[in-house]
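Milestone M4 deliverable, item 7.
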Amino acid sequence: MEKIESSGQDLLLGAHVSIAGGVEKAFARGEAIGATAIQIFTRNASRWQAKPLSAATIRAFRAARSESSIKYVASHDSYLINLASPDPELRRKSILTFLDELQRCSQLGICDLVMHPGAHMGQGRDAGLRTLVESFRSILAEAPENVRILVENTAGQGSCLGAQFADLAEIFSHLPQGNFAVCLDSCHAFAAGYDLATQEGYAASIAEIERLLGLESLALFHLNDSKKPLGARVDRHEHVGQGEIGRDGFALLMTDRRFRTLPKIIETPGGEDNCHDLENLALLRKLAAATDTR
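Output delivered:
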């Protein structure tokens, strides 16, 4: 196999970083770990209520971004949101909060918003997917056009939707193209039964994405190892190379040239003085240093 040495400087690679003290602080935190890509929350992810972004905050964020070496920014929505909920009140709150998330991204100039498909809460997969699609249709009627929705695959814990790539394909088949893409989380995929740890399993998993969704649907990777074994359907992130996927699994992804230019984000705790972020990102760059020609 032909190898091409790379410095890794062309990679869009980074971490989810804190916005404590102001959303504009995220860029300095990303730069401190050598990131070229970051993910943030634009509001408290554990509360329904959030103060509107002030004009001063928006200006500060945009100014910090213009001066930063960070090339890609995504936002992740609130963990409270469940657009597939059968509870009318929870669904209503989820739609309103998700619309607020989209608007905040638009104001800040963030083009991608990552979200989880939600949980069917006992109504069953098919009904849950229908409810989710209905919620998306309501949202699109009011959503800003300059923000893309990245639907993240899940581990399938409890009644969570989106563990199978077929779930994502079903969602997208009922929605406008161009408004949606996929955020692929390695830990979630592995926990859902996709064996990213072996060459054969990795190839089969990517082939399934290509068949059901098309590789062009992939817009962002969350690179998290898994504390739990293959198919456990439990979402527990581990540092890169220290879990069940292991170094070899991440080497397969990092040396896949089809995804070379796609942004990749780690979501594990950064550690004291960013020690874990620095170690994880250094390992990923090392794994990417020899890139194959697939």
